[in-house]
Amino acid sequence: MRFANLNIFAALSAFAVSAAAETLPFAAQSFEASERAGIMLTPVGAETWDFSGVGEVRVAVRNESDQPRRVSVAVFGEGMSLEAAPRAAQRGSRIPPHAVRTIAIPLNDTPYATDEPVTLTGMLGKPPALKELPDFGKVGRIEVWGTPPIDPPLAILGIETAHPARTPKVIPAASFFPFVDRYGQFRHDDWPGKIHSDADFAVARAREEAWLDAHAGGPIPDADRFGGWAGGPQLAATGYFRTEKVGGKWWFVDPDGHLFWSLGVCSVYPGLPTKVAGREKYFLDRADASDFWVVRENIVRKYGEDWRARYAETTQRRFRAWGLNTIGNWNHEFIYAMRRTPYCLCIDFSSMTVSPAWDGSRAHGRAVPDVDSPKFAADLAAAVEKWAEKTKDDPWCLGVFVDNELGWDGCGEKAGEIAEKYYSTVRAVLKKSLPNHLYLGSRIHNDFGEIPAVWVAASRHCDVVSNNHYDFLPSYDLPAGADDKPIMIGEFHFGHKGGGNLNGGLVSAFDVAERARLFRKYVGACLDHPRYVGCHWFQYHDQPASGRFDGENFACGLTSVCDVPHPELVLAAREIAGETYRRRAAK
């Protein structure tokens, strides 16, 4: 294996060096354990590293292979393992061939803790008890390993620390409940933008209205009515969205014939409920055990009886002012039907019967439909037809997603064969009922879509191959044998803990400033890739602190659960949107 101990972080694209960063010397050697094999990094000049005051450790890794590799990094405090509590801090990233990624591992980033353990259900992110916090005062090793084979090797280019450790706010367990206030916010902290009374909604609304008035034109120079580039080349105008390769780069082309790059947001609607029944003590001032529709109740408080129309109007104004030109997957018709922002139609279809080759014990994601059943095509045709009359002639429809994050990894050796029949059938059904619109694929998930044959099949039949890719940077391209087609990121995000948030999401930033920086880096990397035609942030509003239907309580929204925009993300979106077209078109 090859190793390097170099201070190259200033040149890496994934992170900039923070002022408080410290580059560490290290020794490296191969290791092999029962469950993994890779590279062990140890301190030079001391037996252990003292990371008790460190918030984050970053390890720069280069994939020396000709194939993409999923690389994991774990930081081990005294007595820690990956198998037993307290678990080592671990984070992974997919690294393209011969590319470099800086993998950031959060250590002491817990914003809240209780003095004694409290029992919480229905939530993925929870405040730990003080005694449950891991101790990184004596770190004897950092392990780095990738998907086999281990040759060609990984190259370790450097280690650095960043951010001071957080000192968690300690909440007495005896007074922890209720921990959710009447607005669905965490009760035991305060932060800028928190709503304390009904009157605060009016103040926040008036302040934002003034800002929207001042920024109504948006940050995109020469934007046309769709958010495309009126200042760019004039191409054939078909009256609907299409794709075209221009100057060696893929683009959407909007109905007026202008280049269009899709910067969007998913889940544009007033939120999912959180369960109250059986958890009544979690919530302040809940009169009964019915579900708590956190965002919707706050929207009603903020906008009044005509909340639906006013909320939709504010959303449309925000998108233009923020530089967002697409309403992504999971949206509501009363918003996109205003025909002021291009939207993606979501047909969330799955057959009643999974594929015979689909092994539910091994698969992730949603069930792959039984593509050999005549019921598959018939049921899909019925689902598509429900939308055809209202959508087939709509120029504001960017395209159509069918299904979401299918569990191709459960199809075994037949995955390619099944995917070929699946995508070809869906395309035929879609083009029959919605001939004017693009087929945007099924949003292949990065954690269980690493099957080249599936990507090849998607490329043959989708107009745009969509990929839900949660990582520091986008890393997929089409494999050998695929058709030359564009790719669009259907979901990505960077959450963070703190400010009343208990869960940093699937990829967590250390703080709001880093979240904004990661947002710009990710979108910029998509812009710079000749195949990518857009990326969509997941999601519009933060999820409830007490968890949605499956326990997700990610702090991943552009706004809070009280519909208050997160300013650092708004400014990041405006900044990258303002440079989108000229950056994309540059040689």
Write up this protein.
With 587 residues, the chain is α/β, with parallel strands linked by helices. The protein folds into 2 domains: 167 residues, Jelly Rolls (Sandwich); 388 residues, TIM Barrel (Alpha-Beta Barrel), CATH 3.20.20. 22% of the residues lie in helices and 21% in strands. It is built from 10 helices and 24 strands. Strands 16-15-24-21-20-19 form a 6-stranded parallel β-sheet. Strands 2-3-9-5-6 form a 5-stranded antiparallel β-sheet, with no helix packed on it. Strands 1-10-4-7 form a 4-stranded antiparallel β-sheet, with no helix packed on it. Helix 2 packs across helix 3, helix 5 packs parallel to helix 6 and helix 8 packs parallel to helix 9. The radius of gyration is 24 Å and the shape is globular. The N terminus is likely disordered.
As a percent range, the share of helical residues equals 10-25%
Strand content: 15-25%
Computed CA radius of gyration, to the nearest angstrom? 24 Å
* Name of the top-level CATH class of the largest domain: Alpha Beta
Main β-sheet description: 6 strands, parallel
Give the structural class.
alpha/beta
Q: Work out the count of structural domains.
A: 2
For the record, the CATH architecture of the largest domain stands as Alpha-Beta Barrel
Q: Give the terminus-to-terminus CA distance.
A: 37 Å
Low-confidence stretches: 1-20
